[in-house]
Amino acid sequence: MRTGEARAYVHGEMLKPMKTLASALTICAIVFAAAPAFVHADEKAADGAVHVKADAAAKLVQEKKVTVLDIRTSDEFGEGHIAGAQNIDFLQGAAFEAKVKELDKTKPYLVHCQSGGRSSRSLKLFKKLGFESIYHLDGGLGDWQAAGKPVEK
User: Fold this and answer.
1) What is the pLDDT of residues 60-98, one digit of tens each?
2) How far is the C-alpha of 73 from the C-alpha of 47, rounded, in Å?
3) Residues with Cβ < 8 Å from 150, sequence gap 6 or more?
4) Which are the contacts of 20, defined by CB distance < 8 A and separation ≥ 6?
């Protein structure tokens, strides 16, 4: 054994350094991949929102704990939306920001678009404006519908 060289043993058998490294990296990958499953449902992410899937979002809506903000275009909204949703088109830029500024920042909102892209990008505005309680429907209306949740026209 060379000076400074470490050896790892499992069940009395010496492991090769590369095999040990590969095993350690595999374990790390599994732990980090599973990490989102260990986040509590009500924890805010760095973007200031609590991220929820369709079932959790449906419960929030059913219990009337949130106002639903559908940030798709008016055409998309007209094709079907979550009952009671308010439509504010994210693609309207400055007009979107102006309408969001008018909202009550102390009320809880469930924000979504069609697949989660636009609504994810909108979260920094809600955070910047100081909204206290934002929920983000991960996967958007597409995942809501795929989960068999109702929409109205």
Assistant:
1) 999 999 999 999 999 999 999 999 999 999 999 999 999
2) 23
3) 82, 83
4) 8
Is 11 a residue whose pLDDT tops 90? no
What pLDDT shows up at residue 43? 85
- The total number of residues shown for the chain amounts to 153
Q: pTM score, two decimals?
A: 0.73
Q: From the DSSP assignment, how many helices (H) and strands (E) are in the chain?
A: 6, 7
pLDDT of 20 above 80: no
- Dist CA 105 CA 112 (whole Å): 17
Q: Mapping DSSP to helix (H, G, I), strand (E, B) and coil, where does residue 132 land?
A: coil
Catalytic annotation, pick one of 52, 113, 123, 134: 113
Please state, in angstroms and rounded to a whole number, the distance separating the CA atoms of residues 117 and 65. 24
Are 77 and 87 in contact by the 8 Å Cβ rule? The answer is yes
Instruction: State how far Cα 117 lies from the chain centre.
Output: 10
- Catalytic, 28? Answer no
